């Protein structure tokens, strides 16, 4: 099984990613850190603990991470997208478990040492905790097997500015440090996540599931669909974070994923938060870029929704 550290800002699509990981037989979820993004880091931890307990997995340690980005202050979250409580206003049964002592960055460093060479990191929120972990342990890139990041926009517009996607744009300084570090990164940007959606019929299937967690996900998606209806013209939503989870596990076939240089704009101009992916090799036939270490997922060769639904509904782990 794949040893995994998850960093998240739970969040409706984060909740789907978490459920997907818990239901995936190939994933061994060793620890979770939360970061401010969709909600504050402490609220995200609460949501995560509640979801874990619903799935009968209160054993997974959750550490509260950074409340503020590396520079400036947390902006207050995205209630219009994820609801005031981050999970679309759905009341989850409160978990008995609490977050563990220590920061998310400390948890990540500890797990990286304990599983040196094999730990995979999946980041589906702003990259503050990962940047702090790099400061705490500069050898982290040698210890971690691979980092998968949901974030950025390579050839499409951003979603919080003309060029910035939320996870990158909410802490560009952290993202810049994470992309500059010499580890293998797989970026799962809006280019591919916006193309892979769940539809109302999928939501109805979740609502009809016997287990409480898939049903709660179906309820949350009501809120998420409401937000995305403005973009797609029908009730459905992008599956940003679950798609990144599937890519991190190697569970989905990729059609287009060039390895290129990626830099994050952390300046104060209109490009702040942009992921500058050097795709000239791919589109203009330029020579390979020495030192490029970021695989940018631009297309899949299979439909993601059926895979996601099969895992979420087929899972024994979620049938409490
Ligand atoms: C990303 O931002 C958050 O709102 C989502 O959870 C996802 O991780 C999409 O831009
Ligand atoms: Ca997220």
Automatic annotation (TrEMBL):
GO terms for molecular function: hydrolase activity. SUPFAM superfamilies: Nucleoside hydrolase. CDD domains: nuc_hydro_CaPnhB. Residues 5-302 form the Inosine/uridine-preferring nucleoside hydrolase domain. The keyword Aminoacyl-tRNA synthetase does not apply. It comes from the Bacteria. Pfam families: IU_nuc_hydro. Keywords: Glycosidase, Hydrolase. InterPro entries: Inosine/uridine_hydrolase_dom (IPR001910), IUNH (IPR023186), Ribo_hydro-like (IPR036452). This is Nucleoside hydrolase. It comes from Sinomonas halotolerans. The lineage of its organism: Bacteria, Bacillati, Actinomycetota, Actinomycetes, Micrococcales.
